[in-house]
């Protein structure tokens, strides 16, 4: 028995079971969450990738790019993978075989994104405050544009992480429901 | 007839269910050991080096430099996250007789995911700091410190490895508890 929701580009078919009203609302809400995940990961990648600033100190030009720090590179790569995955998942119908794999990949990518934001957060804190015990001076007062971009990318990354975690919660709810295929 | 069928499916799934439960308990014990090792090793990570800075006449002026985990917020978070994870695992293992209820098992599974996220973020932040301490960042003029404080770096590295092992064990435990919850789903439907 098929139920088709009237969305312009995406067709959701529930081939195996009949959805009640509340379940339909939840399904639409979590589809919107997946769209938000696409947007948030794309924003994180773009904003971090365009972070570039340079300053001149005593005639020497110091450049700040995200490629100089492996943690920020990891952040960009992780959010890029999450963006491509979220795009693919939007166009996958909810058949029984693929939906189980999607649940597994959702959990894996949520953890990857949390690790990425943790690493980028550690680097950002160091860039802002420095570490006087190790003789590492803060750089944010010299390259403020770079720091602003990193902060914006991290906010988008935080939104992406929360969205992915909510999607994982919905997946657990689906797995535990008695009508799971 | 339905009762017989229900009892039969319950008995069929019982040995597999017992295997899953045994695996879960052993994984939790191993994760407890790994996270407590990581927390303890990093918490006692401190190294002091005394260097002669200048010589005034015949008296050398000594200055001591200390590398401790409290100086880096990422390492502080690492110790806290692993400590919380090990305490949580200990608590769950001690309270196992109280957790036969299905609702409580779902709660434990959700808390497991939270604790796993804590450990993973702590390990990721500490790993980025450790990479920086080992290689430095020549663009920001941050010099590496591992060539001067070798023992600090080695202990931190071992703690990091233990935390990563604990994170992998927690991931396996999460996956297995989902399997355990769905398997129970089958038996509870027939009851």
TrEMBL record, chain A:
Keywords: Cell membrane, Membrane, Transmembrane, Transmembrane helix. Pfam families: CASP_dom. The keyword DNA damage does not apply. The keyword Signal does not apply. It comes from the Eukaryota. It is found in: Cell membrane. Its main location: membrane. It is a multi-pass membrane protein. Residues 25-162 form the Casparian strip membrane protein domain. The chain crosses the membrane at residues 28-51, 71-92, 104-126, 151-172. GO terms for cellular component: plasma membrane. Belongs to the Casparian strip membrane proteins (CASP) family. Homodimer and heterodimers. This is CASP-like protein. It comes from Zingiber officinale (Ginger). The lineage of its organism: Eukaryota, Viridiplantae, Streptophyta, Embryophyta, Tracheophyta.
UniProtKB/TrEMBL annotation, chain B:
It is a multi-pass membrane protein. The chain crosses the membrane at residues 20-44, 75-95, 107-129, 149-172. Keywords: Cell membrane, Membrane, Transmembrane, Transmembrane helix. InterPro entries: CASP/CASPL, CASP_dom, CASPL. Belongs to the Casparian strip membrane proteins (CASP) family. PANTHER family: CASP-LIKE PROTEIN 1U1 (PTHR36488:SF8). This is CASP-like protein. It comes from Zingiber officinale (Ginger).
